[in-house]
Prior knowledge:
Radius of gyration: 27 Å
Number of domains: 2
Oligomer: single chain
Low-confidence stretches: 14-20, 106-117
CATH architecture of the largest domain: Beta Barrel
Shape: globular
Amino acid sequence: MFHFKKIFYIIFxxxxxAFSQEKSTISGSVYDANNNETLIGVSVYxxxxxxxxxxxxxxxxxxxxxxxxxxxxxxxxxxxxxVETINLSEKITKNFKLTEEAESLNEIxxxxxxxxxxxxxxxxxxxKLTAATIKQIPVVLGEADIIKxxxxxxxxxxxxxxxxxxxxxxxxxxxxxxxxxxxIVFNSSHLLGFFSVFNPDVIKDVKLYKGGxxxxxxxxxxxxxxxxxxxxxxxxxxxxxxxxxxxSRLLAEGPIVKEKSSFIVGGRASYAHLFLPLFDNDNKAYxxxxxxxxxxxxxxxxxxxLSTYFxxxxxxxxxxxxxxxxxxxxxLRWNHLFSDKIFSNLSAIYSDYFYGLILDxxxxxxxxxxxxxxxKYDFKHYLNDNxxxxxxxxxxxxxxxxxxxxxxxxxxxxxSEKLIDKYANEFAAYLEAEHSINDKLTLQYGARxxxxxxxxxxxxxxxxxxxxxIYNSQFKxxxxxxAIATESYKRSDALxxxxxxxPRISLSYLLDNQTSFKLSYNRMAxxxxxxxxxxxxxxxxxxxxxxxxxxPQLLDQFAAGYFKSIKNxxxxxxxxxFYKDIQxxxxxxxxxxxVANNEIETVILNGQARAYGLEVLFKKNEGDFKGxxxxxxxxxxxxxxxxxxxxxxxxxxxxxxxxxxxxxxISINTSYELSKKWLFNANFLFQTGQPTNYPVGxxxxxxxxxxxxxxxxxxxxxLPAYHRLDISATLTPESNKNRKWQAEWVFGIYNLYGRxxxxxxxxxxxxxxFRNEAIQTSIFGLVPSVTYNFKx
Length: 792
């Protein structure tokens, strides 16, 4: 409480100072002149005052300046800048409309502050993806993919080809908060990681926060992937789409009431499985998704949005084994301006992730999932050009369905069984300030208070000495304890409650107009845990809440960086070092069974984790030849010590590599515009091999050699290094100039030199030679692709 009083006292004094001078406020929104879409992150700059601001997530800006006559520059990547003279003698509402520099198909491109590296802002460890006119990054099967683009950034890796999720700065996949129009997405992958769930045609803006995370975000430790969908063209009706080898997409947008209301609907579907019967193959693997959004602008002060997403995956081996999973999100939002200085957003959000199996050869179905309801209210208060406040609250009610077994055949002999549902509530309130101390020093500081309550459930186990995991000293291994009783609680009861104060601070010190030094610290709490003992999350992994036996994960992250804009932004250099310390990272006993386990607490221990490293990003931002080089040197480790002096813990209580530890990570992206007709792109990636375990011996059973693994060491070995080269060429027909139908062809080759990267290495005995052998599993060799994109 002392900290909050101190913060409010500082704010009060600064507010008095702000209003003691004769100033006026200019505010408004910035739109794309072509379709009336609001634009995020537009620079509104007053050069004579060396002061400015940027538009927020809804295209709104506000700045208070000394009265006078000034020039204002409004600029945004890919759009023609506007320069106007403003007489700021009183309060002004001023909207701007920017025109695209060139008409082109919208693709996904990593911006990363391409226009001019913003060395002044205290925000660091952030990369941006935006819908722009630069052609798509080469990816497998020609499908533009946001998650695959993220993997080209420093500090971001994956578990390998065909692996779902992504890892940021040595963190686990469940430590990433993924938001689509503010709604939580629990699984970001289609087809077990081959594609992401985000249709690039629908996406408007994407930011990845790796550190220095603003106080408005919480609930995860490693990163925040903040994605906003387009609002739809409120001037004209348009169709956009693409046809590829394995999937196609179509987007429609247009006005409902011209200049006031619009809609957008986008869908994708894969169809490669339709050709499998031609090869006498009855397996299946396909996905489809649907994005939609409508909005209505009542007046300059009130906007309403309704956005949705629905996606589903089906993977089956004949009809005997079918895996289905998908996401559903709905968000109803109201933007309201209380004044030219106070912007608010009220959101009511529903999010659901379901996952299940049909095991026809056994005779049952398995269904599980997680659902949450989120109500949040956020405010942005623009006090003056040197001081801005953000504050708000949000409350999330969560239902966990760990699993249900349902027989699907009368003769299966399977009995219906329902694992006990779990419930929780997470509340948070935050306050954050962005404060320009002087021309050189800018601060962003604040705090988040979070409360997590594990609510009552129908039945909960009771263990002797409250210990669900026991250590068998005779056999020297951890074992699951037997419950001695069960207890039942009402839904309104609190089984456990956790409170955490999460301070955040970032600063930027300007060394000169092109160079700055930045520091950041953030503390974060995570109350939800993805229970998975595989290197990459699978649809069967179960989310579990913190409670009596599972503690919240707590993170302290420190980062320092040097940022330089070279030759007026033609080149840029970003270097950062980071250190992350995590308490209460869950670990698993040897042989832990996580599927359909109603006593999941009996296979879990609480440990700690740490990660540290160096990131370098060098970019060429201008000219026909553009691109970047990203390099990360890092370490990610985990440790679980014994609870008493008689217990060894996991890995003898010593640090061991996490499954997502990658010592070296190098990525190179290049783009060369040969002419208005031809654009060439290439990617090269290199990563240290993923940690794993190899056998240390063998024993014989009925003439068969069985490998032996050391239970006392984890992740002591590695798979071979991962590397590949991708290329693409984009052909834009000259006939585009004189017609409304715009088109392009994208030709690509994924993994040009056919590297057989190891997804896993398994050990077995050869049935013919009876000798042990290592079998490497690789997913992709060389993969050509062609995609036809169009816009009408």
